[in-house]
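note to self — DONT lose this again. spent like an hour looking for the file last time. sequence + predicted structure for the chain T wanted, 563 res
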Amino acid sequence: MAVRHDLPLVTTLAIGMSAAFVCGLIASKLRIPPIVGYLIAGILVGPYTPGFHVDVGIAEELSEIGIVLLMFGVGLHFSLNDFMEVKKIALTGALSQIAIVTTLGAGISHLWGWPWESSILFGLSLSVASTVVLLRAFEERNLVQTMHGHIAIGWLVIEDLAMILALVLIPALAADDAGVSTAGSPLQQLFIALGKIGLFILIMLVAGKRILPWLLTAVNKTRSRELFTLAVFAMAIGVAFGASKLFGVSFALGAFFAGMMIRESDMNHEVANRALPFQDAFAVLFFVSIGMLFNPHILLEQPLHVLTVTAIIMLGNFLVSFSIVMLFGYQLKTALLVSSGLAQIGEFSFILVTVGLAYGLLPEDGRDLILAGAMASIALNPVAFFISRKLYEFAERTPRLSNLFNMRGDSLAFLRSDEKYVLKDLVILAGHGRVGRQISKNIHDSHIDLVVIDNNRERVEALRENGFHAIAGDASQQETLKEAAIHKAVALVVSVPDPFEARRIVESARALKPSLKILVRAHNEEERNYFISQNADLTTTGPRAIGHMMANYLNDMRLKKTD
């Protein structure tokens, strides 16, 4: 029975977050992902179950804040350079996946007797992944700053842009379905939408890139902590709101661009520290709001339809994205991680459902089926990552599969065919990201022979064009290290952001050449101690390196003063 509340916002926060905490804690104790507990909490406080009900509309708005803060935080760690390095696979992959999965979903729903307009919208809703779910999964596995994360985030950005354009065309579908002539209208609306998106991006790149960091610097000079925190939230939510109202861009995409522009500021880490604590709390309400919308009766009334929809979302999206990543020549590990992250649906699917219902394009059963598929795919997403890891380990142990998926990486043809290069005192660099770029520049400037190993094929191609010796592959694989001529190397520098991958690289290199000098970048003292136990010759963290540099400078000053 619904209860009248004088303070619906407070009630929604209190009941929603308390239920999420209890259910999440129980799920964690049962070794189930906490997300499943949050979804169950939403069902318990939703309108389809007895007991206390919270306001669904308020819960959805609060969850939108979580999405905004989440995408703002991603933008703080994602530069335009990161996107440009994966633009080909992100653009081609996202559009291809949307087209294939939409066709699959539309075809099956049309067989159920739905009109084509409803079927197309239904298929489109099954093709776009949830930003919150993917980013939470990648954050838990320390993958956001890796090449796998860059591809997945770039993929999401293209999906968001495509869905914005799809929302523009839905009224045209509704008009056609009603027999109303809309000659020229859809094309005109499409051009207007493209123009607005382009104008927003241009304004952010030209003005936002300068104004937002400048404002933060000005606020920081006031030395007011609360004012700085307020400025961070005002920028994140303000830009997201303005992007939505003025340019028709989604809140998530607007916040993402705001974070990218602030990334140019020297205070981006301070900004992240202010925003991220609130991000997690509000992101939980996103999962609660999904559970509140779900009608459990659909499981009893149409179980085969629910299974079919879940299969399209999980298997369809997984297989399509997996095939696309592999066709682009990336490693098996990248294909499995990216496709696992994309094997679910979320917030944009719900927006499409809402708009479809408003225009009479989607039946009530369609809404319930999409919500059921979303619930199942989100709850099973950790299982998808687990199965992917097992598949990778199985392929790694099977020589035939290892060769089939090219797990060794590209051959260093120049070592065999080009006699101009006689590599002596060779150094191998594993990982050419933000830190790796600086390391490779310093090594190259020192005229030391260098071979770079990186998973990102576009990055490797760019390195080759600039005269570097580079191969695309997994540096934790012994065959890849052999192709990089580890037998000629005197040192291996490991600068990959994933600590687990770094550990495997060190272990593989030590097994191949015990005398090799190994230099490792660690994120914290715990990682540093581990690499020291593995007999790494040099291991340092950012704070430790800064401390040594400053201490050396002060010692030099003292010695000069003594002289």
